[in-house]
Write a structure and sequence with these properties.
With 185 residues, the chain is an all-alpha fold. 79% of the residues lie in helices and 0% in strands. It is built from seven helices and no strands. The radius of gyration is 24 Å and the shape is rod-shaped. The termini are far apart.
Length: 185
């Protein structure tokens, strides 16, 4: 009788432990999804700012039609990208296109002095910082989740319930990984 009671207690402990690991995996997966939705919110804000920036610049940059079209094209591709890998690649291309745009803006002092343009540029800069923060938070949550899936004994529960690793949001463009070169001469 004591042996049966001990076995039942052990069985209950194992079941509770498995349930705890399962719930932990669910919580971490939901945190990853939430972190991704925070990136989406900031990307939508970025997408909404870009047309206003282009419209403001059009009047000043009549000879830069290709630059403005490239931004619109990159924005459309980024908005249509599906999945983390495709999204991060498209976002890298959009960021590179915006960087080129701001380099061209340097040739237009009237545009640089335009109050609407300055406000939009500041909003975009703020949004870029928020996107960077959201990417970091997403990658942190993804790391926690992937670690839990890979570590024993939770990896057994993860395999039993078909939990899959999440993809990190990485920068594909090598230029974005390089530190900017500053030259004061």
């Amino acid at each position: 009788m004591i042996v049966i009671a001990v076995l039942l207690v052990l069985l209950v402990l194992v079941v509770f432990n498995l349930a705890g690991m399962y719930n932990s995996l669910i919580r971490l997966r939901n945190q990853v999804k939430n972190a991704w939705s925070q990136i989406d919110v900031q990307l939508k804000r970025r997408y909404d700012l870009i047309p206003n920036l282009i419209e403001t610049a059009k009047g000043y940059m009549q000879h830069e039609r290709e630059t403005l079209e490239n931004i619109t094209k990159a924005r459309s591709q980024a908005m249509g990208a599906q999945g983390i890998g495709e999204k991060s690649k498209a976002e890298g291309a959009l960021g590179e296109t915006l960087s080129k745009f701001f380099l061209v803006v340097e040739n237009y002092p009237d545009l640089k002095a335009n109050q609407n343009f300055l406000v939009l540029q500041e909003e975009l800069t703020s949004t870029e910082n928020k996107i960077a923060f959201a990417r970091q938070a997403y990658n942190d949550q993804t790391l926690f989740f992937n670690n839990k899936i890979q570590m024993f004994p939770s990896n057994i529960v993860a395999q039993m319930f078909n939990f899959k690793e999440e993809e990190f949001f990485v920068i594909e463009e090598k230029k974005e990984r390089e530190a900017p070169k500053v030259n004061f001469s």
